[in-house]
Amino acid sequence: MLTSSSPAHAPKPTTALGPVLIAQNLYFQFGNQIVLRDVSLEVFPGEVLAIVGESGSGKSTLLNLLYGNLTPSQGIVQAISTTGLQPLSALSQQTLRQLQRSRWGYVCQNPRDALRMTISASGNIIERRMAMGLRHYGTLRQEARHWLEKVEIDPARLDDLPETFSGGMLQRLQIARTLISQPALLYLDEPTSGLDVSVQAALLDLLRKLVSKEQMAVLLVTHDLAVARLLAQRIAVMRHGEIIEAGLADQVLDDPQHPYTQLLVSSVLPA
Ligand SMILES: Nc1ncnc2c1ncn2[C@@H]1O[C@H](COP(=O)(O)OP(=O)(O)OP(=O)(O)O)[C@@H](O)[C@H]1O
């Protein structure tokens, strides 16, 4: 069921630029289990769209479809590539990988899954720049230092192994490593889960600053409505593989229309 503030009718951000990603009527199934049903959304430059919902609602599966790691059984995902808006299904694996490495960034929940734990912090940060052909040692080192500072890690830790970093620092390192290539579209998959509350708050503050400064489009998956409230301008609520309500963040969180969203909001957000 879609409410009156469903994706098709949800207020769009006022931007002269078109969407960087459009998903239309996506369906996906694992075996016989339909995991996504008729999911549509758009994300625009300079906005954070949060996809929220309880565990098992299909958030990660949706993010994987939008990132091109999974292929929908029905529907279409289109994204801006070098030649304009293109269906992901029309891209070769090589072009998709290129798009993922150059124009997109992906920050996953567990930084250890993304970082190379046996090379230094600077080595981790500059990897994408080297893949883009930059070879000058001095410039690369300067960029690594710059990004370490941007994510508020002491640049004296440049040559340290990630193994010696705390959980919050590892997540900051993953963010630096991802943002160095200045992605137009950033995928954030539960970026602050598993961190202490105080570490989480500092990281959210940092993400908010970086996202607004870099003017990226961001797709944020979270089960935490407080995280969505802090970072997102728009929110899509998922339940059982469907987007049941979507709209401006304040509107969805302060005046939820769908009974499930009302329950979700009342059970986690203090009045
Ligand atoms: N590889 C898989 N094989 C079979 N079923 C899967 C697989 N991955 C996910 N599922 C099922 O798809 C449904 C949606 O899972 P998904 O991980 O997308 O939800 P989620 O909202 O991201 O949950 P969580 O917040 O716990 O990660 C669940 O019923 C899950 O059991």
Note the total helix count. 9
Structural class, from helix and strand content? alpha/beta
Query: Portion of residues in helices?
Result: 25-40%
Count of the separate structural domains: 2
Q: How would you describe what is shown here?
A:
With 271 residues, this protein is of the alpha/beta class. It has two domains: 1-103 and 183-266, P-loop containing nucleotide triphosphate hydrolases (Rossmann fold, 3-Layer(aba) Sandwich); 115-182, no CATH class. The protein is 36% helix and 24% strand. The protein contains nine helices and ten strands. The strands form two sheets. The protein has a six-stranded mixed β-sheet, with helices on both faces. A four-stranded antiparallel β-sheet has the order 2-1-4-5, covered by helices on one side. Helix 3 crosses helix 4, helix 3 (121-131) runs parallel beside helix 5 and helix 4 packs across helix 5 (167-179). The protein binds adenosine-5'-triphosphate (ATP). This is Phosphonate C-P lyase system protein PhnK.
